[in-house]
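This entry is listed below:
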Amino acid sequence: MKIFADNIPIYLQLKTEVENAILSGVLKAEDGIDSIRAMAAKYSINPLTVSKAIQELETEGIIYKKRGIGFYVSPEAPAILRKRHMQAYLDTDVKSFVRKARQLELSLAEIIKLIEKTYKNSGTDNPVREQSNPAPHLFNEGLGPSTHDNKDKER
């Protein structure tokens, strides 16, 4: 059973889980996701909470609805999410790194050498494969991708 953090709204945690499943490749373009009813039952949460997460994902173009069938991962979802995460990374981590490097009076050449060395020592050129044992999330616990069946059409 998924334990939700108390300090973040549950719908945002659920939304983040879907996004992380897409970014990590657990959910791929055109994969179906479980219905609102199924997610609510599995995690013992209010269907309106699930609906709010689904609605935001749909509004952002991460998922789309096939009428009468269910919700599916948008073909554009990985690119949308990578762009959003890249911008957040640049706005926080990279700016912080550069500020600290300047405080330490590192030259651009020294920074580049440090980054190259660290990247080389990370053991991979593909950051997704770097995580040999990704942190568990909803979709590692059996929530996706879904094979929509007729008994669970409510969305």
In short: The chain has six helices and two strands.
